[in-house]
Every structure is written in C-alpha cells, then in structure tokens.
C-alpha cells in the first residue's frame, strides 16, 4: 500500500532511500554477528556503532531540512532538540544502572550521591520506565519547540532574527545544563550506562539492534517527510518559503503551518538524540554547543536542501570526512569544514543532489535538442512524473 | 451615506509612519458590483490604502467596514482574505518553485487549516475549477511549468488567476499591466471587465490608456486623501489633478 502511495505521488527517490535503509538495517547486523571475523565481509562492532552514529546525524539532518529546506526557517539551534531527546534517553539509562553504580545507591545516580543529594528530584520520576522515557524523548523537544515557535511565529520573527534566537536557545540550554544543581549531571553529563531494556549496551548484539533501530527510524522519518511534503500542507510550506506574505493574503495562517512543521521537526531531532546516546555511551552539555547545530546546517547544505534524501547523504559524507580528517590530519579538520561550506555555497548552491538534478536536466535538454524540439523548462524532478504521462514537448 | 449598503466603506482613515502621514483623512465608498480605478502620483498612498484594507497595516484612526458590518481593522490578513478580499501585488508574486497548476491549487477557495491541508485530496470538482481558470488565463498548456519560468506578463495573469481561484467578493489589483505589451494590456483590461461582471474590483494603475480602456469611475489620490472623483474625463480636466500631475 505504501509502495502504491509512493508511485501515485511519484516520489521514487524517497522510496529507493527507504528500501536501502531497510536493507542496511538487516544487512549490517548480519555481517557483524553472523559473518566470522576472518571474512573480508565482516563488519566490526566499532564500525556498527560508528555507522549508527552517522545515521542519527542523518536523522537530525532530515529533521532540520524539513524546516529549513522546505519552509525556509533556518534553525541554528536544532542541536538543542537533539540533545534534549538524548538527555531523556540518558536519564532512562542512568536509572537502569540501579545499585551497580560506584556508590551502589539503589535509586540515586552516582552524581547525585556525589553531590550529597538525599532523594531523587521530581523530574527524574518515571524515567525508570522505558516507555515513559520514550514518550519524553518526543514530548520534551516537542513542547519546547511548540512554545518557542508559538511565540516566535506569532510575532512574525523570521529570517536571520529567528536564526539568532534559535542559537540563543541552544546556548541558554548549554549554560543551564552545565550547572550541577540543574540535576542533569552538570559538566560530566550522563554516562557509564549498563543496560537498555535489559540488554547490555556494550554487547555486540545490542549495538547491532540499536543500529537497525536507527536505520528503521530514519526510514520512517523519510516516509513521514515525504508524506508531509507531497501533501497540500507541504505545498503551503514551500509557498511560505518563497512568498510568505502572498500565502497570508490567500488566507492561510502561516504561523500555524510553521508551528506544525517546526514541532514535528523538533520531535524527529529528539528521536535522533535518543538513538545517539546509547550508541556513543554518553550525553553531556557540549551537545548543546551552538557549533553542533551549525554543523548540522552544513550537512544539509552539502547534501542538498529542499530534498528529502540530500541531508542523509550530506550528513554521512561530512561525518565520514570528519572521522577521517580528525584522525589523519587533526589540525586541518576545521579548515576543511569551513572550506567545504564556502565551496558548497559558491559552487553547489543546491548541494550534491542539486548537482545531480541539473546534470539530469542538461542530459534531457541535450536529448531534446537532438530531436529538434523545444522542451518545456524542467518541471520539478519527481513531482507527478508517475502520476500521469508527462506532457510531451509537442503539447 | 450609511456604511450598511456598501461593500467597502472607508471614513476618515489616517495612518502615519515615523511622522509621515501616508494616509490623511481618506474616505472612499465602493458599492457592491462596482469597479473603480485609483490613480495618483507616486507616494499618493495607493499601496498603503490597500495595505489598510487587507489588514497589513492598522490605521491610526478612522473606520474601515467591509460588507457594511465587518470592521476590518480588527482582523489580520488571513481573516480578511477568508472574508472575501483578494489582493494582487504590484510586483507579480507567485510561488516560483510550484507549477502553474499548484499555484492555483493553493489559491483555490476552501478550508485553510493545517490539518485539512495535510490530508487534503483534490476532488473532481476542484480539478474542473482549476482547469476552467487555466483556460481563462490562457495558461492551460503551461500548467505543468514552474511558475518561475513564465514571462512577466504570464506571471501577472497567473496571479489574477489565483485571485479568481480564491473567489473573493472584492479584488484589489495593484498595477496589473506594469511591464506588459500593448496587446497584453488590452487583453488584461478585457479580463478585468469580465471579472467585474460578478465581483467588485479596485484597480490601482498609472497607465491612463489602460484606465480609459476600463471605462469606470476614477478616484484620484494625492498626499493620502481624495483629490477628485468621477469619470476619467471629469477627473483629468480637474485643474487640481492637472497641477498635481504636471505642476511639480
């Protein structure tokens, strides 16, 4: 049924991406767990976690592109929602440690015992239950985004001003989470996790399962994004991006549309953060660092904003580059990142996918010239192509 | 005149920006079904008047009533659009990265809530209406083109088509023939006259030739208030209008 929907709406690229992600979710664990170490096809466990981390970044990038690429809201603070989702998951993982902590307190996490706290703060209640924590993973970023968006969009804060206050938001949270008396482990954050749902987080099988879960959630995010973008609501969002006041004079309450997509995006980012934490084994306030959010913007720009799968490609490529460069030439990584952003802005304004798209268009117009016909300007690549036969140039 | 029997009623409206009085005690009445041309030199307050009617700018004082009873100063742009006032901008403003057809889909009257848009499916009836408008504005052949690739004149027409799709009671049209060829201008005049058969229209225009072609009552604005009103011949023979246009 889903396949049918995709074909009717002609979003072939998203369908391919989903198929690849589901295949990867199955294949990587098999190559890790069932293929012996000696085989060249064996995927070592450290690599499974590394790839899993990349995919959580990709999920964050998809979330960011939903607001930036399709609705024109440049968020420089999406890392905040990512980190909040991560903290919610981290709190669950902390409470799973139980009496196995250094101070062996059955309820209080180590850092609270260290700070001489006698009882659990109220906002830690419920986090011993996985489903409660899972709910908080989406609810906390969602509620924060809703409140923030409600105030910002209703007062018509747009453009660079909005970007600056999103940056301020993540910076404020960074400072708050650094404080010990906030009750989130201060500077050190939350770490030394033992179990997730009763499975050892260090075990190869758990790592494979977390990887598979990340790939499947990413596939789900592609599905949701595709559904939103292909709907009339998605068209309104693109209209807001291109001519916001026109949309208002057509009778649309632009602030509500923005609020919807902004909140959905923050929830997605929260899920990304929750999947990130058990795979890297730590969450601390540095995840709120404004630079992290800006890096996420670069992933989206490199991959191609305003496309659903561009951000995934961008996030994976840039982070692969980061892993390589920070190991091989640690001192030049930041220069490489800066240069990448400048080059992409100058030469690939639509990112890697945009380059591919214009290459395809050029090929199509070459073919048309051969037939000595005039081709109508290229209609958006994927829209409607499969829904009905494309009107031919002769029309 | 009572506000009750009118479609649009502006009385004693004033607004200033940073001490500059853009609109100064302006009064204007439009009957249901009427088409009116508004002329006036640059800075006369034409666009600001449209901003006030469509809710973009709130007046400092004065009354603005739509349909006799609705106080427009208490509503925002989206509300006013849903009440039935459509607006075409001076610079053609269409959604460039949407196709011609999608531009009309977005403009088509109907529910505007986010939830209904998320699960919207286009009905047969809506498709028919869109096709009808595409024929009217002569863009049927180009319905799958991106709006960005249309010519300037075609964009103007698409925007007029979007107004038609909105199905408003009152259309505010700001300089519809700017940058059009003579043939396109004549076509646009014809199109607007067609539209005015079933709706009220206010046209702001500099092009006297075009205003003559419309053949409707003319209001001349100057420094934010009405200078003269009547037929084009009457207005253009008014010594004060001549002075405003030629004197300075």
Kindly describe this structure.
By secondary structure, chain A is mainly α. Chain A has helices at 2-9, 12-33, 45-71, 78-97, 110-114, 130-154, 159-178, 204-230, 232-242, 244-249, 254-280, 290-303, 310-328, 333-347, 351-370, and strands at 190-191, 195-196, 199-200, 282-283. Chain A has 15 helices and 4 strands. In chain A, strand 2 (195-196) and strand 3 (199-200) form a beta hairpin. The model of chain A is unreliable at 371-395 (pLDDT under 50). Chain B has 248 residues and is an alpha/beta fold. Chain B contains 10 helices and 10 strands. The model of chain B has no long low-confidence stretch (mean pLDDT 89). Classes of the chains: A mainly alpha (395), B alpha/beta (248). Chain A binds chain B through residues 228, 231-233, 235-236, 238-239, 241-243, 245-254, 256-257, 260, 376-380, 383-384, 390-391, 395, and chain B through 54, 56, 76-78, 81-82, 86-87, 89, 93-99, 102, 105-107, 112-114, 117-120, 141-142, 144-146, 148-149, 162, 166.
């Amino acid at each position: 049924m889903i396949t049918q929907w995709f074909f009717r709406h002609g979003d072939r690229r998203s369908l391919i991406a989903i198929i690849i992600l589901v295949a990867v979710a199955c294949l990587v664990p098999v190559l890790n767990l069932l293929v012996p170490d000696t085989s060249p096809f064996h995927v070592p466990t450290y690599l499974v976690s590394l790839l899993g981390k990349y995919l959580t970044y990709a999920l964050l990038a998809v979330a960011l592109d939903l607001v930036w690429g399709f609705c024109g809201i440049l968020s420089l603070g999406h890392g905040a929602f990512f980190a909040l989702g991560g903290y919610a998951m981290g709190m669950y993982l902390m409470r799973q440690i139980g009496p196995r902590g250094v101070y062996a307190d059955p309820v209080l996490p180590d850092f609270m015992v260290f700070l001489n706290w006698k009882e659990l703060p109220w906002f830690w209640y419920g986090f011993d239950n996985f489903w409660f924590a899972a709910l908080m993973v989406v609810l906390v970023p969602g509620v924060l985004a809703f409140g923030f968006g409600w105030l910002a969009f209703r007062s018509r804060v747009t453009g660079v001003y909005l970007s600056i206050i999103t940056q301020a938001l993540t910076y404020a949270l960074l400072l708050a989470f650094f404080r010990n008396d906030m009750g989130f482990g201060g500077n050190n954050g939350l770490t030394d996790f033992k179990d997730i749902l009763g499975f050892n987080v260090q075990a190869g099988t758990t790592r494979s399962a977390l990887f598979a879960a990340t790939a499947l959630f990413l596939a789900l995010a592609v599905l949701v994004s595709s559904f939103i973008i292909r709907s009339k609501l998605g068209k309104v969002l693109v209209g807001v991006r291109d001519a916001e006041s026109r949309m208002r004079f057509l009778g649309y309450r632009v602030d509500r549309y923005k609020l919807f997509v902004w909140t959905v995006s923050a929830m997605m980012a929260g899920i990304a953060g929750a999947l990130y934490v058990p795979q890297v084994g730590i969450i601390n306030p540095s995840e709120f660092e404004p630079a992290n959010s800006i890096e996420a913007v670069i992933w989206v720009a490199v991959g191609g904003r305003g496309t659903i799968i561009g951000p995934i490609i961008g996030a994976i490529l840039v982070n692969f580059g980061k892993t390589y460069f920070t190991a091989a030439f640690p001192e030049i990584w930041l220069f490489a990142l800066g240069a990448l952003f400048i080059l992409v802005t100058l030469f690939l304004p639509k990112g890697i996918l945009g380059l591919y798209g214009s290459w395809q268009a050029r090929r199509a117009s070459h073919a048309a010239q051969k037939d000595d016909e005039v081709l109508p300007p290229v209609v958006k690549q994927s829209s409607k192509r499969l829904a009905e036969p494309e009107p031919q140039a002769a029309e | 005149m009572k506000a009750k029997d009118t479609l649009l009623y502006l009385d004693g409206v004033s607004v200033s920006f940073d001490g500059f009085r853009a609109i100064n005690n302006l009064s204007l009445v439009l009957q249901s079904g009427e088409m009116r041309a508004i002329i006036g030199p640059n800075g006369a307050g034409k666009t600001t008047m449209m901003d006030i009617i469509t809710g973009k700018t709130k007046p400092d004082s004065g009354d603005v009533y739509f349909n006799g009873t609705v106080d427009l100063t208490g509503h925002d742009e989206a509300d006013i659009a849903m009440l039935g006032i459509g607006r075409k901008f001076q610079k053609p403003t269409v959604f460039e990265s949407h196709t011609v057809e999608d531009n009309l889909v977005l403009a088509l009257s109907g529910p505007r809530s986010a939830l209904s848009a998320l699960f919207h499916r286009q009905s047969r009836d809506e498709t028919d209406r869109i096709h009808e408008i595409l024929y009217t504005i002569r863009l049927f052949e180009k319905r799958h083109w991106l709006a960005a690739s249309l010519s300037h004149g075609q964009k103007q027409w698409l925007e007029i088509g979007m107004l038609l799709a909105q199905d408003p009671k009152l259309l505010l049209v700001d300089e519809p023939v700017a940058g059009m060829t003579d043939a396109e201008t004549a076509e646009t005049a014809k199109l607007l006259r067609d539209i005015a058969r079933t709706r009220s229209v206010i046209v702001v225009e500099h092009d006297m030739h075009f205003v003559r072609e419309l053949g409707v009552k003319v209001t001349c604005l100057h420094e934010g208030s009405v200078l003269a009103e009547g037929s084009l011949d009457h207005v253009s023979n008014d010594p004060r209008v001549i002075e405003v246009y030629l004197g300075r």
